[in-house]
Amino acid sequence: MSVKEPSKHKSNQPRTIAITGGKGGVGKTSVALNLALTLARQNKRVLLLDGDTDLANVSIMVGLYPQKTLANVMAGECRLEDTLLEAEYGLHIVPGASGVQECMDMSPDDSLRILRALSQLESRYDYVITDTAAGLQASGLHMIAAAELACIVVTPDPASLTDAFSLMKVMKRRGYKRVPSILVNMAQGASQARSVFQRLDAAAQRHLGEGFHYLGGIWRDETLRQSVLNQHPVALLPVGDPSCRQFHTLADMLDVRLSQLPRRKAGIAAYWHSVSRKQGNVQPQKRAPKPLSVRERCMNAISELESILAQSPDNGLLRYEAFTRLFALLGGTVDSDTVEIIQTGLGAMRWESLSGERKAHLAEHLRHLADEIHPVRPVDVQAPVHETMVSEPVYDRISFGEQDQLLQALKAQPADISLDQLLKSLAGDRGSGHG
Ligand SMILES: Nc1ncnc2c1ncn2[C@@H]1O[C@H](COP(=O)(O)OP(=O)(O)O)[C@@H](O)[C@H]1O
Ligand SMILES: [Mg+2]
């Protein structure tokens, strides 16, 4: 595919933005594409890196079908420029950009060849926007780290919030220092978007010690949804159209935010180059390996986990099990963050599609975890008695034994027994052969 060179040839560093989010279906691709088209419409030179591994990717949404992708470039079959697709307003798209991760497995010479080409390409644009894959896949995390600004797309759905939270938590663990922006998609209005943001922000302040930046909201919009099916993005509608206009507002908000951030000296290719150098440096050393610290071992386990999960993003059970094993490794303490991460794992799981046996297995797991959570609930000895009394009803296992046994025992009681007698018989007489 041949594509016009962007008109001006001024060599500079583009502003780099990663559109990301913990969960699939929150609208990352729709936002990335419409934002990129809107900026292109405003005469900006825009490159959109399609790092989504989903089938509903950027190119499909504009009705373009890539002949060549980054994989062909890596195989030496074509140049990076040959993969470029040109959409309306001269927006350029690199299909299959998630493959950049695989450059790390190539020989240093080969990966350098590709990263140099990417670096030269980048320098011709004002904006480089990456649409990342869902979830905590390693390539997605790198794409966030590579960009100046991470824009995390969430929806009012609580599962998307816990996912965003987990994403940030993993990024922080990996040493991410910047403050990501939150875009609330599919909001019912400005006040809902705000309150969704505030919930997430408060959780992050509390548990991660740092909050987020609010980039804005995009409304739940039937025109936008239809536009995906019609392969005619809303950013192509007349500027006065409300569906189109909100992306102009978003573009304005983005520029305000970017103006507050220090310009990076290097772009996305440079980031990947530094990653490949780090990996490359490890191999040739033949010194005896230093024993790893607990923290390093956990970090390794986490990245292993991520790479396994990346291969089967839909395997919710695997994801869940891997997480629980990791918690065991971390010492088995279930704090409130852990609970949030478990919720995330559960949220991502397709419960309906599990077999009966797997469901039972999982239920067993959950019960186990629930038992662990119970003891860490803080007991505030200072609190006045009535407050501790009004807490959620808790089943008293010590007095009454396991719930299913209790149920059996209840069924075995004569119908005319008084409540008082019933309780006494259960508490004192448990297991003595009722029924
Ligand atoms: N603001 C919105 N209002 C209504 N539907 C939306 C909105 N944003 C996205 N969608 C729809 O949600 C679905 C998932 O969007 P997509 O951009 O593919 O998400 P992701 O890339 O996060 O998986 C698509 O059908 C899209 O049309
Ligand atoms: Mg997508």
TrEMBL record:
Alphabetized UniProt keyword annotations: ATP-binding, Cell projection, Cilium, Flagellum, Nucleotide-binding
Top-level taxonomic group: Bacteria
SMART domains documented for this protein: AAA
GO biological process: negative regulation of cell division
Region listing for Disordered, in residue ranges: 1-20
Keyword ATP-binding set for record: yes
GO MF term (any one): ATP hydrolysis activity
GO-annotated cellular components: cytoplasmic side of plasma membrane; cytosol
Domain AAA+ ATPase: residue ranges: 13-175
Protein name: Flagellar synthesis regulator FleN
Species name: Marinobacter nitratireducens
Lineage: Bacteria, Pseudomonadati, Pseudomonadota, Gammaproteobacteria, Pseudomonadales
